[in-house]
TrEMBL record:
Keywords per UniProt: Hydrogen ion transport, Ion transport, Transport
Protein known as: V-type proton ATPase subunit F
Protein family (similarity comment): Belongs to the V-ATPase F subunit family.
PANTHER family listed in its UniProt record: V-TYPE PROTON ATPASE SUBUNIT F, VACUOLAR ATP SYNTHASE SUBUNIT F
One GO CC annotation: proton-transporting V-type ATPase, V1 domain
Length: 119
């Protein structure tokens, strides 16, 4: 990774991941592991969580984008991540709109500021 930036990893439905891949996000690491996971109906919860944890441990990944509905399924793993990098960002999916009240990053940020700070 010398001289290169960090990658963006994506976990989501086929349309979401395909959009990011068409935007040039997809890459393989030195072990030929992709930085994305297309989650289908038959994808197990264990596979989703295992992939998420593997992305957390990869030094070449700086941001993990995860569909909010998937983040809800592995909320314990998402909230256990406390390091600044890789940053974990929840995004909407095609089937479900984004709900800011469920976003772990926004919930943490709310605890840092009082309503007066935001005026």
């Amino acid at each position: 990774m010398s001289g290169r930036g960090k990658l963006i990893a994506v976990l989501g439905d086929e349309d979401t991941v395909t959009g990011f891949l068409l935007g040039g996000v997809g890459e393989l690491d030195k072990h030929r592991k992709p930085n994305f996971l297309v989650v289908e109906k038959e994808t197990s919860l264990a596979e989703i969580e295992e992939t998420f944890r593997s992305f957390l441990n990869r030094e070449d990944i700086g941001i993990i984008l995860i569909s909010q509905c998937l983040a809800e399924l592995i909320r314990h793993a998402v909230e256990a991540h406390a390091r600044p990098l890789p940053a974990v960002l929840e995004i909407p999916s095609k089937e479900r709109p984004y709900d800011p009240s469920k976003d772990s990053v926004l919930r943490r940020a709310r605890g840092l500021f009082t309503p007066d700070d935001l005026r």
